[in-house]
Amino acid sequence: MNEESIDIGDRLSARLFEQVIEIRKEKGMTQRELAQLSGVNLSVITKMENGTSYPRLFTFLKILEGLDATLQMGTLEDKMME
Fold first, then answer.
1. The pairing of beta strand 75-78 with beta strand 69-72
2. Can you give the residue range of the structural domain that contains 66?
3. Which of 48, 54, 57, 76 could share a disulfide with 19, CB 3.0–4.6 Å?
4. For the chain, what is the mean pLDDT?
5. Which residue has the higher pLDDT, 74 or 16?
Protein backbone atom coordinates (compact mmCIF):
# COMPACT_ATOMS: atom_id res chain seq x y z
CA MET A 1 0.00 0.00 0.00
CA ASN A 2 1.45 3.37 -0.94
CA GLU A 3 1.38 6.62 1.07
CA GLU A 4 -1.27 8.21 -1.14
CA SER A 5 -3.81 5.44 -0.52
CA ILE A 6 -3.21 5.66 3.23
CA ASP A 7 -3.73 9.42 3.12
CA ILE A 8 -6.98 9.09 1.17
CA GLY A 9 -8.23 6.44 3.59
CA ASP A 10 -7.32 8.57 6.59
CA ARG A 11 -9.11 11.59 5.13
CA LEU A 12 -12.20 9.52 4.36
CA SER A 13 -12.21 8.05 7.87
CA ALA A 14 -11.77 11.47 9.45
CA ARG A 15 -14.71 12.85 7.44
CA LEU A 16 -16.97 9.94 8.45
CA PHE A 17 -16.16 10.46 12.10
CA GLU A 18 -16.78 14.21 11.76
CA GLN A 19 -20.22 13.38 10.40
CA VAL A 20 -20.92 11.12 13.37
CA ILE A 21 -20.12 14.03 15.70
CA GLU A 22 -22.38 16.35 13.69
CA ILE A 23 -25.30 13.92 13.83
CA ARG A 24 -24.82 13.37 17.57
CA LYS A 25 -24.84 17.10 18.23
CA GLU A 26 -27.83 17.72 15.92
CA LYS A 27 -29.78 15.19 17.97
CA GLY A 28 -28.78 16.99 21.17
CA MET A 29 -27.14 13.80 22.41
CA THR A 30 -24.18 13.69 24.80
CA GLN A 31 -21.26 11.35 24.32
CA ARG A 32 -22.43 9.44 27.39
CA GLU A 33 -25.93 9.01 25.92
CA LEU A 34 -24.46 7.77 22.64
CA ALA A 35 -22.30 5.31 24.56
CA GLN A 36 -25.34 3.96 26.39
CA LEU A 37 -27.50 3.72 23.26
CA SER A 38 -24.80 2.08 21.17
CA GLY A 39 -23.30 -0.17 23.83
CA VAL A 40 -19.86 1.29 23.05
CA ASN A 41 -17.54 2.37 25.85
CA LEU A 42 -17.58 6.12 26.48
CA SER A 43 -13.77 6.29 26.17
CA VAL A 44 -13.98 4.89 22.60
CA ILE A 45 -16.43 7.63 21.60
CA THR A 46 -14.38 10.33 23.34
CA LYS A 47 -11.16 9.21 21.61
CA MET A 48 -12.95 9.06 18.25
CA GLU A 49 -14.28 12.58 18.66
CA ASN A 50 -10.88 13.86 19.80
CA GLY A 51 -9.22 12.21 16.81
CA THR A 52 -6.80 10.26 19.00
CA SER A 53 -8.13 6.83 18.05
CA TYR A 54 -10.69 5.42 15.64
CA PRO A 55 -12.92 2.40 16.27
CA ARG A 56 -12.96 -0.74 14.19
CA LEU A 57 -15.74 -1.22 11.66
CA PHE A 58 -17.97 -3.33 13.95
CA THR A 59 -17.74 -0.72 16.72
CA PHE A 60 -18.36 2.08 14.22
CA LEU A 61 -21.52 0.30 13.02
CA LYS A 62 -22.73 0.01 16.63
CA ILE A 63 -22.21 3.78 17.03
CA LEU A 64 -24.26 4.38 13.87
CA GLU A 65 -26.98 2.16 15.26
CA GLY A 66 -27.00 4.19 18.48
CA LEU A 67 -27.47 7.32 16.40
CA ASP A 68 -30.16 5.66 14.28
CA ALA A 69 -28.03 6.55 11.25
CA THR A 70 -26.87 4.58 8.21
CA LEU A 71 -23.81 4.65 5.97
CA GLN A 72 -24.82 5.18 2.34
CA MET A 73 -22.78 6.00 -0.74
CA GLY A 74 -19.72 6.95 1.32
CA THR A 75 -21.58 9.42 3.56
CA LEU A 76 -23.68 9.18 6.66
CA GLU A 77 -27.35 9.91 6.46
CA ASP A 78 -29.66 10.24 9.39
CA LYS A 79 -32.47 7.68 9.07
CA MET A 80 -34.90 10.39 10.08
CA MET A 81 -34.17 12.20 6.78
CA GLU A 82 -35.01 9.17 4.60
1. antiparallel
2. 3-81
3. 76
4. 80
5. 16
